[in-house]
Design goal:
CATH topology of the largest domain: Protocatechuate 4,5-dioxygenase, Chain B
Helix content: 25-40%
CATH class of the largest domain: Alpha Beta
Number of helices: 15
Radius of gyration: 25 Å
Largest sheet: 8 strands, mixed
Shape: globular
Strand content: 15-25%
Distance between the termini: 35 Å
Structural class: alpha+beta
Strand order of the largest sheet: 6-3-7-2-8-1-10-9
């Protein structure tokens, strides 16, 4: 591989679209020109580009497999700006072959396949914006067009390793571009409003990349990632996989947030060859997970890990368990999230074991193995799963007016039927929504008489 780049893709930076607004992100424009001239000097035969905005599958990375891809900026008011680029089908096929061999979910994205989903195959703006600037200086290349999927971090990284191996096998002269914007939540008037974790994500992510701190990239706060509203992290994880056996330095050419979205332009330069970094990253993450400061989530992870490794429930409490966890009896919910999506959740409204610690041990296995909505968790998934533990306070009788879905969970009861909903759930913003879901879960008709109780939860998350 001859070059590695993180490039933003704001359509407004294209003059025919921006109509003068692009001058507000001039540093980004200048950085694009620098990168484009550098690519011209490298004269690659192929540009491998990873985008968030091509036709995306939830369960497989998509590699375009057509003779060429064409597109224009019509949806942004500039249909006259168009391009058509030949696809390097041989390299695309080799990447697919090696990724499949490594059990990475991947599909060849063709017209026939996408027609089944009523989707047209076209060049997306995540690809066209970077290529617009490159094409002003250099056009003698073919394209490998990849749309990432919301897979686990390590699957994406390993896919990058497959890309690198395919390039080496075919002796291609290629560069790789990770197309992606950073947080979309940097200003109140931005596309998704403001969230303070957006700026935190951008700062930390770029710093880790500059310093080549890969473990820190993988162990960034999931809460921070989810609230940043970004689309570039997964592109970068794939690109980092292509650099698995080289040491490198990152150089940030520019970062702007004028329009409430983080636009980062970076290049990465290899310093020397090294052994694979993947095992070191995995070991570091395992050590971090095993030494979580919070004993509640640490126990939840250890319980499910022990079960998956030994096919039996933990029979001894670890020494880090607090006295409160040994003595207190409460209902407990254990939730598992993978890539920001629920992977399992099982809990008890009232305690069914001797203490909170035993409740966590029991419910973490239940959530991972026996949640009927999901397939059982496999041990290979654990590094991509975030654990949280909710300890319920004692419930108290309440009226509808005393509920607040952000602060209180709710329990509804009628004729032996019971429904529970935890507080502060995404998409549950009103008391009416909260009660409706709880009643539906219990199978209680909203028109019949039912009692209401409220409770709080003490939520424990992995750091």
């Amino acid at each position: 591989m001859d070059g590695f780049y993180l490039l933003a893709h704001p359509p407004i930076i294209v003059p025919e679209i921006g109509n003068g607004e692009e001058r507000n992100i001039e540093a980004t424009t200048n950085s694009f020109d620098i990168i484009a001239k550098e690519i011209k000097a490298k004269a690659p035969n192929t540009i491998i580009l990873i985008t968030p905005h091509g036709p995306m599958f939830n369960d497989a990375i998509a590699i375009t497999y057509e003779d060429s891809l064409k597109g224009d900026f019509g949806r942004f008011g500039a249909p006259q700006v168009s391009m058509e680029i030949a696809i390097n089908k041989k390299l695309s096929q080799e990447i697919y072959k090696l990724a499949t061999k490594d059990n990475i979910p991947v599909v060849m994205s063709t017209k026939e396949l996408l027609n089944q989903y009523n989707v047209h195959i076209t060049l997306d703006h995540g690809a066209m914006v970077p290529l617009y600037f490159i094409n002003r200086f250099y056009k003698d290349y073919s394209l490998v067009h990849i749309t990432y999927a919301p897979l686990g971090d390590f699957e994406l990284y390993k896919f990058g390793m497959s890309i690198k191996n395919a390039v080496d096998k075919l002796k291609e002269k290629a560069i790789i571009i990770a197309s992606g914007d950073l947080s979309h939540r940097l200003k109140e008037d931005g596309p998704y409003g403001y969230n303070p974790l957006g700026e935190k994500f951008d700062n930390e992510f770029l710093q880790h990349l500059e310093k080549a701190n890969l473990t820190e990239v993988f162990t960034m706060s999931r809460e921070c990632i989810e609230n940043a509203g970004e689309c570039g992290r997964r592109s970068v994880l794939i690109m980092l996989g292509t650099m698995d056996e080289i040491d490198f330095k990152g150089y940030l050419l520019s970062y702007e947030k004028t329009f409430g979205v983080g636009y980062g332009i970076m290049k990465f330069e290899a310093t020397n060859k090294c052994k694979t970094k993947l095992n070191t990253i995995i070991d570091s993450i395992n050590n971090k997970n095993k030494n979580q400061a919070n004993p509640y989530v640490r126990l939840a992870r250890e319980s499910l890990t022990t079960y998956l490794e030994n096919k039996k429930i933990m029979d001894k409490l670890p020494p880090y368990i607090s006295e409160e966890m040994k003595k207190l009896k409460r209902g407990v919910f254990v939730s598992l999230k993978k890539n920001g999506k629920l992977r399992g959740c099982i809990g008890t409204i009232f305690p069914v074991t001797s203490c909170v610690a035993q409740e966590i041990i029991r419910n973490s296995v239940e959530a991972g193995i026996y949640d009927p909505r999901f397939l059982p968790v496999e041990i290979s998934e654990l590094n991509d799963i975030e654990f949280s533990v909710d300890v319920l306070t004692e419930a108290e009788s309440a009226t509808k007016d005393e509920l607040n879905p952000k602060e209180y969970g709710v329990i509804v009861r009628s004729n032996g039927k019971t429904g529970l909903l935890l507080p502060d759930l995404e998409g549950v913003d009103t008391v009416e929504e909260q009660l409706s879901i709880a009643l539906r879960k219990a199978g209680i008709n909203p028109l019949e008489n039912y009692s209401i109780e409220r409770f709080k939860v003490i939520r424990h998350r992995e750091e």
